[in-house]
Automatic annotation (TrEMBL):
This is Glycosyltransferase. It holds the Pfam family Glycos_transf_2. It comes from Hymenobacter algoricola. SUPFAM superfamilies: Nucleotide-diphospho-sugar transferases. It comes from the Bacteria.
Length: 307
């Protein structure tokens, strides 16, 4: 099945401290029934557990399929993702982190067939389920019903990020632009960049399980940190995609500024609040954003502290 020629599909996998889960993730890729060549590019970021040993064991067992990238020191999740992304050689790229796994052995074949027959589509995604550390079901489908449809770039920027572990995309983004290299939501930025090349299409059916556990980067963040991380992503998108897409991005930017501002105000963190307000005001002037006046009115009338 494998050959020395360029694979049709690359699987982009980053892993860190995933010793208890990594074998299941890799096995779920190797179990895919397909008629095309495949490579698994694994970025192992100097885990303190046995994750690297597992990667090396799988490389020994599947040398034609598994290509490990093994930095000598920890480079962080975003740098790891970019390094692996740049190393993927396939016409198409799938994403699976080392603590998640696929449950449909026809996932990749079905998605490859779709992209081959739908040239206007740049990415295809599916449903996924949410499970706990032991793989017990928490939520049979955590893709909300209103987002089970095809997306344009405009819709993606204002609405929803497809679950990364379900996607297959055309390898049309060679690297991550500098503006996106410091954000935490790298998948969302990547999908937006891909959205410049075509639609992001939905296929029904659960193909993967997303594992919720204490060691997960996203699940470990508190509410304010998540708001700030999402705001940073939206601001980067506002900078990168320019005035054409302001109407799509600004509502989310306004919402995150409001939510963070309310938290700071309620906690009487006045210096941080004033700094955030100044940033919001500067952005609003440069983008002719009208939401600042509504925010200020709530502040002056005492409604901000009651929100």
């Amino acid at each position: 099945m494998e050959s020395s020629t360029t694979p049709l599909v690359s699987v982009l996998m980053i892993t860190y401290n995933h010793g208890p889960y990594l074998a299941q993730a890799l096995d779920s890729i190797l179990a895919q029934e397909r008629n095309f060549s495949l490579e698994i590019v694994v970025g192992e970021d100097c885990s303190p557990d046995n994750t690297r040993a597992i990667v090396l064991d799988y490389q020994r067992r599947y040398p034609a399929t598994i290509r490990p990238l093994l930095p000598e020191h920890n480079i962080g999740a975003m740098n790891n993702q970019i390094q692996v992304m740049e190393a993927c050689r396939g016409r198409y790229v799938a994403i699976l982190e080392g603590d998640d796994y696929w449950v449909d052995p026809h996932k990749l074949q079905r998605q490859v067939d779709y992209l081959e027959s739908h040239p206007a589509a740049a990415l295809v995604f599916t449903d996924a389920a949410l499970v706990d550390e032991q793989g017990q079901m928490l939520e049979e489908n955590f893709v909300p019903a209103q987002y089970r449809h095809h997306f344009t770039l405009s819709e993606l920027l204002q609405e929803y990020c497809p679950p990364a572990l379900t996607v297959l995309y055309r390898n049309v983004v060679p690297t991550m632009p500098p503006v996106f290299r410091q954000i935490a939501n790298g998948d969302y930025a990547l999908f937006a960049l891909i959205g410049q090349h075509g639609t992001l299409d939905y296929l029904p059916g659960v193909t993967a399980h997303y594992r919720k556990h204490g060691g997960g980067v996203w699940s470990a963040q508190n509410e304010e940190k998540r708001f700030r991380m999402n705001l940073a992503t939206k601001l980067a998108m506002l900078h990168y995609f320019g005035p054409q897409y302001r109407p799509d991005i600004l509502p989310a930017v306004n919402w995150y500024y409001t939510q963070i501002g309310q938290l700071l105000w309620q906690q009487k963190r006045w210096k941080e609040f004033l700094l955030l307000y100044a940033q919001f005001a500067s952005l609003s002037v440069s983008t002719t954003n009208r939401e600042l006046s509504a925010f200020t009115w709530k502040l002056l009338t005492g409604r901000l502290s009651k929100a």
